[in-house]
Amino acid sequence: MGATAAARSVMRARVGSGLVVAVLLLPFGSGALARAGVVAEATTIPVGLLAMIAGYVLLTAMWEERSPFRHAPRSLTARTLTGPRTVDLGRITTVRLVTTFSQAGVYRTVVVRDADGVRLGLTTGRSREHLRRAVEQAESHAGRGGTGPRVSRAATAYLGLTRGRGLAVHTVLAFLCTTVGMSLYLSVVIRLGGQ
Description:
Layout: H1 3-35, H2 44-61, E1 66-72, E2 75-80, E3 83-88, E4 92-102, E5 105-114, E6 119-122, H3 125-143, E7 150-151, H4 153-158, H5 166-194
Parallel strand pairs: 4-7
Antiparallel strand pairs: 1-2, 2-3, 4-5, 5-6
Helix pairs in contact: 1-2, 2-5
């Protein structure tokens, strides 16, 4: 992938992330409008609930792969909500695991980032296997004097590169962070709606 295409991909991702942040800030705008008497104070809480749900879904979905996919020996290309992204598997810098929760259960996405700053969330088994081979190859090069990518303990366990309890600890911490974050957000929204 050329530098220009990578820069466009990163820029689209930043714009998308900015839109998600704007969605999360909607209750604060609604609260300001309620204090000015433009809208009813009771609108802040429903707006906050909708913003929280939309933000939670969009934050992780922003970089997730969608079909069509293209797997090449040194790259992964997929469509995302912000357009197509291509990750250079020969220049991986970080790999981490993002865990979210829904009524259906636990949902995991392996997020890989390359040296150009392009980030792609892998959700399919074929993409994860492609990444696993690339990480193993990068680590073998690192063993010979190079520098390998930073791979989180949870991502290492999820990709099957090591055995251990990193996945269980990660899942508990992800659940706690999600619960506490949503609770804090809702408490601020409720306080805004009560003024």
